[in-house]
């Protein structure tokens, strides 16, 4: 279960690094397209909340929702973003080795 939670958090971080800001609906489309994690199913609101918590609790990445920009999710703070990019690069390299 922890491994799955970690993978969902990593997916969310990686997706937001690539797209910067996404609505829940946009995240859901990308989630469904990633059949390895989603099995083609929609991402429930609860799954999104768990992925956000995983990103924060396990990986130290803060994801916020901008209510003034159509409730779009993004990685908060420049320092957090720099650390996140480093973390994702390191994780990708470790997966290859």
Description:
- There is one protein chain.
- The protein is mostly helical.
- Helix content is 66%, strand content 10%.
- It is built from five helices and three strands.
- It has helices spanning 2-19, 24-33, 35-38, 45-57, 78-96, and strands at residues 22-23, 63-66, 72-75.
- Strands 1-3-2 form a three-stranded antiparallel β-sheet.
- A hairpin with a 5-residue loop joins strand 2 (63-66) and strand 3 (72-75).
- The mean pLDDT is 84.
Secondary structure topology:
Elements lengths: L1 H18 L2 E2 H10 L1 H4 L6 H13 L5 E4 L5 E4 L2 H19 L1
Antiparallel strand pairs: 1-3, 2-3
Helix pairs in contact: 1-4, 1-5
By secondary-structure content and strand pairing, the structural class works out as mainly alpha
In the predicted model, the low-confidence regions spanning at least 5 consecutive residues are none
Radius of gyration: 13 Å
How many distinct helices? 5
Taking all residues together, what is the mean pLDDT?
84
Helical residue percent band? 55-70%
Distance between the termini: 24 Å
Beta strand count: 3
Short précis:
The chain is mainly alpha-helical and 97 residues long.
Key attributes of the depicted protein:
3 strands, 5 helices, globular, mainly alpha, 66% helix, 3-stranded antiparallel sheet, 97 residues
């Amino acid at each position: 279960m922890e491994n799955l939670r970690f993978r969902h958090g990593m997916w969310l971080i990686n997706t937001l690094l690539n797209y910067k800001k996404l609505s829940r609906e946009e995240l859901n489309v990308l989630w469904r397209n990633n059949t390895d994690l989603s099995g083609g199913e929609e991402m429930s609101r609860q799954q999104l909340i768990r992925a956000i918590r995983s990103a924060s609790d396990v990986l130290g990445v803060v994801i916020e929702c901008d209510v003034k920009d159509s409730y779009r999710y993004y990685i908060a703070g420049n320092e957090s973003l720099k650390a996140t990019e480093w973390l994702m690069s390191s994780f990708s390299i470790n997966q290859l080795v």
